[in-house]
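Limitations
The structure tokens in this dataset are predictions for the assembled complex, not deposited experimental models. Users should treat interface geometry with appropriate caution, especially where small molecules or nucleic acid strands are included. An illustrative entry is reproduced here so readers can see what is and is not provided.
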Amino acid sequence: MNKPPDMTQLSLYAKREPVFNRRIDGKFRRIKWAIMALCLAVYWVTPWLRWDRGPYAPTQAVLIDLAHRRFYMFGIEIWPHEFYFVAGLLIMAGIGLFLVTSAVGRAWCGYACPQTVWTDLFQHVDRLIDGDRNARMRLYKAPWGPAKIARRLVKWAIYLAISLATGGAWIYYFADAPTLWTEFWSGTADPVAYATVATLTATTFVLGGFMREQVCIYMCPWPRIQTAMTDEKSLTVTYKDFRGEPRASLKKSQKAPDVFGDCIDCNQCVAVCPTGIDIRQGPQVGCITCALCIDACDRVMHDIGRPRGLIDYATLDDAEREKAGQPPTRHLKLIWRPRTLAYLAVWAGIGLALLFALGTRVHTGLTVAKDRNPPYILLSDGSVRGAYTLRLRNMEGRPRRMEIAIVGLPGAVMWTDDSARADAARTLTRTIPADATLPLRVYVVAPPTTAAQDFTFRVTAEGEARETALSEVTFDTPQEANP
Amino acid sequence: MAEHHPKGRLDEATNTETVGHEWDGIEELNTPLPRWWLWTFYACIVFALGYSVVYPAWPMLSSATQGTLGWTSRGELDKDMKAAAATRAKTVAALADMRIEELPKHPELMRAAVAGGAAAFRINCVQCHGAGAAGSKGFPNLNDDDWLWGGDLKTIETTLLHGIRQPGDDATRMSIMPNFGSDGLLTAAQIDAVAGHVLSLSGKARGNAEGAKLFADNCAVCHGPAGKGSRQFGAPNLTDAIWLDGGTKDDVVAQIGKPHMGVMPAWTGRLDPVTIKMLAAYVHSLGGGEQTPAPEPEAAATP
Ligand code: SF4
Ligand code: SF4
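Predicted assembly:
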């Protein structure tokens, strides 16, 4: 076990222990490569995909258009008042994390988290420039000289280039990517673009290049939430101490195979760990379950002719079962447990609700604000007028004619601030430009004896029966004040 | 700093010292903070110190330190206001050059004028006309379709420029209704009769012959023989449903006996011409605005 710390040396602040993780190949390492490639590819390619929305809308498949307050995602266009779709997606992402954690533990941390992906990437750069673990340790201890400085500068330059290429690519989600690309490199892009790129490049450079596991252990809130979420039924990377202990060197354990366990204390699991921890001390917040130690130990076990899985994905419960001599539970069975199913149900429920809302939404919208001050106007002929501000939304990429009608309120007619009172009628039509909102101030005038009541504004896109939006509002009258 | 806590002991699982307290069997580990955290903390202190040097910060006896950048929130506001004025400059210039009758031909300018007018209204006009411009007894409702002096853009602008019954402004709206009661022009009984006739004009009371006669003799000059009022004198239409000073018999009697006559400031000189144009556009937009009548050549010929 660990040496007890020297109490006289114990400081309130600890220096970061650099991590020199060794190169390793194996099943999980290859999965990590694949996921990294996939994540980066999706991230880089997405803004460059085109999607034809006709002449009135941008052709970028995925676009967060902050200036016009639109969010485009392939065939879906989200308006600000439909932000619940985005909120719903965020909630799904949150519950999705719970779901994944419940089913397969910290898989997000180990494979898909951007911090993990970037750390992994930068550690490969370390290996490329400075060599593998031992060479890097040597270089770390070596005094500063021209050779070391040169290596560091080259390495940091590569860090910076990667940071620019990855962190900086984020801006292409917020504007037409090809245009922004040209503008960016010709120096004519908006200062906000440069500021964003500078900030994201700097944070990627610092967090991925230097902070690394410190982010996971000290800065990220997620591990803390996860420690509360994981239990003995959660899948984690587990060192099977009943099988490994007591550990001894290969030589010693070969001499007395009955006394010693399978672990030959070769430290390979520690050497490959990207966060520099020793999994043999049990589950800990520093373990992101990247499974590289499984790859390392499996290789050792193969070499010394032992069965693999001394370190393996297992729940603590299952490790206990195995210790008691029972066969391990199949992973699928570990995954399907009530908690996971409950998360899945909630997650899928929200997803289906969003899909339903998406399928049934109309591309015609109406919101009505009634003038409250004054609530009504008495006109010289004794009739009563109410004023309303209508906002007609045409959420399609072409101009559409829409009919606005008063439903209810017998005898009432309306006119607008862009028409004459003489033209007042029960219905009127307006053409709403493509993908736009038309504000319309509407005056509704009702005969003298009308009582206060509710009525409805109805907006129907011409020739499209399904495209109707309704809004019920109040009509106030003087009679209401003294009934 | 690195004092060994007397009660601190090593936690078995982690080999870390405990802080020496125990809560329900739970002990806190004395895990050291990462050093970069400390440096971040120092950096924040340095930043804060620098910040308090370049920006106003330290309280002194009568004010605070000025900061080397010379920044003030007032200056910031000033800059914002100037920037806002600069963005409005084109609109303001266009409005200044334009006769108000032309405004409806320029929907963009009209919208800007209405928005600017709404803001100016909230500062200058709500005191009398109310936040929604609905007025109150004695203060005209600007939303309705009843206008004492006329409700087209040009007329509203004139009213704004010169006010109502403003001494010292030659072009002000001036009309006077005699104090029929307090000056002894009519007896109380006669006033009562006239009031009855006036209310009968809009069907609010039964008419009477004496009242009709008295009306014809005393009131028709301004209000017209049928009581339809006259915009030339700002005389209210007595046949409609809108009563500026109240529509009950008592109200009408009081108004004949000792009339209340409202005043409105002449805004020339108090507000710039563009703001006045904007106010006119806003008031016109409230729902009762009238078309500007086409100029009549004959009317111009005969002064
Ligand atoms: S890699 Fe396996 S055998 Fe080697 S120290 Fe780690 S657990 Fe023991
Ligand atoms: S202990 Fe193993 S699984 Fe955990 S972070 Fe280190 S290498 Fe990855």
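Some entries come with short summary sentences. For this one: Chain A has three domains: 27-86+94-227, 236-339, 364-475.
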